[in-house]
Amino acid sequence: MKEKLQNIKNEAIQKLNASDSLTKLNDVRVAILGKKGELTTIMKSMKELLPEERPAFGQLINEVRAEIEQKLEEAKSALETKELELRLKNEVIDVTLPAQKNMVGHRHPNTIALEEVERIFIGMGYEVVEGPEVELDYYNFEALNIPANHPAKDEQDTFYINNDIVLRTQTSPVQVRVMEEGKLPIRVIAPGRVFRSDEVDATHSPSFHQIEGLVIDKYITFADLKGTLAEFVRELFGADTKVKFRPHHFPFTEPSAEVDMSCFKCGGKGCRFCKGSGWIEILGCGMVHPKVLKMSGIDPEEYSGFAFGVGLERIALLKYEIDDMRLLYENDSRFLKQF
Ligand code: DAH
Questions:
Q1: Is residue 190 part of a domain?
Q2: Eight-state DSSP code of residue 125
Q3: Ligand 1 in contact with 310 (CB < 6 A)?
Q4: 286: left (phi > 0), else alpha (psi -120 to 50), else beta?
Q5: Same domain, 129 and 266
Q6: Ligand 1 center to 23 CA (angstroms)
Q7: Of the four, 66, 103, 116, 270, which is 20 to 30 A from 276 by CA?
Q8: CA 63, CA 80: separation in Å to the nearest integer?
Q9: What residue's CA is closest to ligand 1, atom 12?
Q10: Are residues 259 and 293 in the same domain?
């Protein structure tokens, strides 16, 4: 019996050493120490021994059991360490791999230009306001002194929703909306999208943007208009930039003018950029027509004002020296990223 015990022990140790997984190790444990395991069986057969032999043999069994249990513990912790190492090795993160690039958005040249214009006018005490893109014919034309059959309406052919509603052709209707509110004095700019039924080319698009300006107060004169726009252009294109006011006609201003600025490329000497003239046309403006003031409920005897309208794309194209307006609408990030 002693010999049998010795065999069990040897075999157990051998099997433990050969187990290469925790599952196999458990199988060995069950086969030897379990309820029907070999050691349990031999313990039960102790009754075959003489009573005086039993205590010594019992002690021996306990020793063997303790020894096997210890070996089992050792094998288990060795296997656990090995499995952990393997898992860590498989799950290793290669910190030298190139990181995934984050695509960060970029402001559109129009937006950059608009924010620059807003910054300049806010600095002069203006408020930025907005009006609807789908506008009443009344605001877009009638209230701006462009009656139903006025030829100026042809120049700004647009998309009609019905007889009374149009996609606005200009930001000028926002002037009327602000004046109708009746809060005086007024000092606002109104940027926004406008529409005209134009063919697409390098300088035209059926949808583009304008920035409207309106100042109404007592004693506003053409001198205020000139000073304001001269300062605006100097801030936008550099301190040496000069302005020239050319007489023009707009139905909603009297007198009206178009403003040219000295070419920022050649300084006015004449170059390819300004087509040799030294001047670049930049905006339209004038003193708000008394009829327009009256229609919006402002007394032209007491108040006067000036207005101007500038194309946002025109500023973006000039400022960033882009020679084709279509580039602004293609959303090609390779183009947009440059600004
Ligand atoms: N609305 C005009 C246009 O689209 C631009 C303009 C000219 C606006 C003179 C004005 C102005 O406010 O006074 O051509």
A1: yes
A2: T
A3: no
A4: left
A5: yes
A6: 86
A7: 116
A8: 26
A9: 308
A10: yes
